[in-house]
Amino acid sequence: MRLSSGDWVIIIGYLSFALLVGLAYAKRAGRGLADFFVSGRSLPWWIVGTSMVATTFSTDTPNLVTDIVRTKGGVSGNWLWWAFLLSGMMTVFLYARMWRRSGVLTDLEFYELRYSGRAAAFVRGFRAIYLGVFFNVLVMGSVTLAATKIGHILFGWKPWVMVVLCGSVALAYSVASGLWGVVITDLFQFALAMVGAFAAAYFSLSHASVGGLAGLVEKTVEKLTFFPRVGDAELLISVFVIPLAVSWWAMWYPGSEPGGAAYVAQRMLAAKNERHSMLSTLWFNVAHYALRPWPWILVALASTIVFPQLGDIKSAFPGIEERLVKDDIAYPAMLKFLPHGFLGLMAASLIAAYMSTIDTHLNWGTSYVVNDFYKRFVRPDATDKHYIAVSRLITAGLMILACGVSFLLVSALKSFEIMLQVTAGTGLVYLLRWYWWRVNAWSEISAMLAAVFGTAIFWTFGSSIATQWKFMAEIDERGVAHIAVHWQLLGTACITTLVWLPVTFMTRPTSRATLLKFYRLVRPSGPGWKQIAPEALEVKSPDRFTRNLLSWVVGCLTVYCALFATGSLLYGRLTAGLILAAIFVISGIALLRIIRPSSAEKHA
Asked: pTM here?
């Protein structure tokens, strides 16, 4: 593709804006660690929630959705991530307020607030490096891989050129302005990315071989179902039953894990109060699941018509690198049909999507390494000025590592599957640790180790197991049998759960003093604290467990109805669309009434 001078003006203008924001907030970010990592705990819900949405609106997200639609049976394949709304809504109503009440700087501080002894210190330090460096670099590497594919298609650049250009700008304002610069640029990045996504969908539908929305529906009718067909047992299990019955509570999915998924927890801690923390995560889940998916899905469906085979993409882009040609590259390939002006806007929006994710991961990853490892175990007595200087160095180091990892990955979907598998089964620990006093540090340590162990078993012996258990087998592009991903996830989740539950009862509980201190500070509700509550009778939880559960159910119903109402109307199924829209409106009004603040909350 060849960009016009007007396209380049749009792109350069956006990059300049991001750098100016970084410079504008550099002084404020340098006032202390709380300003650098949680914006002084002063952000309103709409900034916090939009920043969360912008972070998950990455360059690899439309690529991932395209990969799923093309390889997982069509639209219904998106249950691989739609199922995580269940845990996302739990974050809103059962966890957001408690996170804000905890008052920690990073979610890893939680470990020494909730647990006691050397095990608590170990798990905090270990996860600071494991999540802040290794896991975080894998996520950023996946995002950067998607950016290199887009740059290769749009500009004909070698992968390293895209990495150096966009990575340098994101690094510059992240280093300068901390979370202040991240959240302010995220507002603009989200708006730009949404405009670009709708533009891509419009011009993809306008392609002659697609024939508009009606043509798309007619030519891809077998891919349009919201749920896998009952007759296709393998697809039903892999993209609906396993995600809906197991994955949402068993896996750690960035952006939805109720126990505090890194940047989501960081944003909740940056909110000005408990209610703003709750409202920010509600807005995030509505936008993440109901507002954004359809432009990506429409482009993905159109790509199955325009580029039904990967060879068609190779033919359309003769100079493309062989290792980059996977199904996820079909999304940037569809951008070929945008006219000038819109092409520049789309390019800028994708760069914005990339940078909005990278800047957040750089900031929270650095917060782990500095606050939860360096400050806690290496230099506990240094000044904030020293810690901020170290933070800026660590930020640069994480960016360099992520760029290197991007060259080792092959596709967005494969990276997503790896991230899910190495955390399979750990989600239940993160759910229960807030509501059951008996969960201890060894519960989390054993769950982490068991998940990695289970993953290693399936990676090492997968071919042998698949040969003996045919129903689990899946044949890859090389003709080699291995265990299908959904069976690997289920198996690893079972192994993890069967390890951490016995370990919980075989090890000493958290000290009584620590549990009481945590209970008095966070004030959790529910029956899981009956052993502790009588010793702190002065504490009254402001939460109502049954009301929160009702809000969770109604919230999930509201968002799913909005998602499927939009899809039905796009498909031309007017009756179904109107019925779902009516349920969305009714359940939305009911949800607003349920979460309406009490008189005590209004005067708090």
From this structure: 0.80
